[in-house]
Amino acid sequence: MLTSTCAALVMVACGDTTSPIRATTRFVQAVSLNDLETALDGATFVKIAFTTPTGLVARQIEVEADQDDETIASRVTAINTVDETVTLELGGLVVRYTSNTRFRTPTSSDVALVLWEQFVQNEISNGRNPPIEARRHLPLRPRAPTIALFTATDLRITNDLDEARIEVLVDADNLEQATSSPSLAILRVFNLPFEITAQTELERVVEGQVSVGSVVEFEAEVVAADAATRTLLLAGGTIIKISSATTVDPNGDLVTFAAVVTAKNSGKFVHAEGRGRVDSAGVPVTITATTVKVDVDD
């Protein structure tokens, strides 16, 4: 594991600026349901991820900074070329498209409507439900929670989908009281009642400086790793300390420092995410990791 092989690690740096991973470290903090309710007093951009591809139980709700687009990511189960709609696996959501929508496939960033429809139809005919990202421009204010209509300005068929998600502008009108256990509350979006339970991770993206002693989640490219100090240097300058108490996610692509070195020497982009406590909030921010997962972006 990473904690037991730190002595085998040498300093490795990556100066390539073409990395698809974010250029600065992203910090996230846990919040309470009351905190979420307070945040929804005004228009708030949230990302909702789900426990299952089809279910309506929220695995995570994250309060984020405003974005340029609202997004639905799921898999297509049906397409109606007459009505110009696709039906998604997530809650049976129906997304509408028009001749003004931009259509993308895994190999082309701009294809004709008829070719895109043929691509989707072929995928479904061959027993596949293609993963899709449907985007539309951010509205000036949140839409009413009971409005299910989503007309996409951009429809992208992707190569893969880690989990279904919705990124959308909401406010207090979207939050409802739970009517039965185990729900604690309901976040209604596109007229679908997404359950918030005790297992739902409620978080917010940290804007500005993090505070010493706070517990945060981090995510960024690994720029360098130092065996002597048992640290990972992340893009943006954040330092992650790996201690004997750090839990390394075995589902990550890399679970030893030797593997990190090999990946970076091969020119691959190494990506780390995890949770930890802030030791220093100055420059650089230093965090002792309680959990860490290291992946390779191929």
Could you describe the 3D structure shown?
Strand 5 and strand 6 form a beta hairpin. The strands form two sheets. The chain has a five-stranded mixed β-barrel with strand order 17-18-19-22-21. It has a three-stranded antiparallel beta sheet with strand order 13-14-15, with no helix packed on it. Helices cover 10% and strands 43% of the residues. It has helices at residues 33-39, 113-125, 257-265, and strands at residues 26-30, 44-50, 58-64, 69-80, 85-88, 94-96, 102-105, 108-111, 131-137, 150-151, 154-157, 165-170, 175-177, 185-189, 192-196, 201-205, 215-226, 231-234, 239-241, 247-248, 269-280, 286-297. Mean pLDDT is 87; it is low at 3-22. It contains three helices and 22 strands. It is mostly beta strands. The protein starts with 25 loop residues before the first strand and ends with a strand.
Spell out the key features of this protein.
single chain; disordered N terminus; mainly beta; 5-stranded mixed beta barrel; globular; 3-stranded antiparallel β-sheet; 298 residues; 22 strands
Largest sheet: 5 strands, mixed, barrel
Average of per-residue pLDDT values: 87
Global morphology = globular
Q: How far apart lie the N and C ends?
A: 22 Å
Strand order of the largest sheet: 17-18-19-22-21
Radius of gyration: 21 Å
**Beta-strand content estimate:** 35-45%
- Number of alpha- plus pi-helical segments: 3
Segments where pLDDT lies below 50 for 5+ residues? 3-22
Order of helices and strands: EHEEEEEEEHEEEEEEEEEEEEHEE
Q: Write down how many β-strands occur, each being a DSSP E stretch of 2 or more residues.
A: 22
Helical content stands at: under 10%
Q: Structural class, from secondary structure content?
A: mainly beta
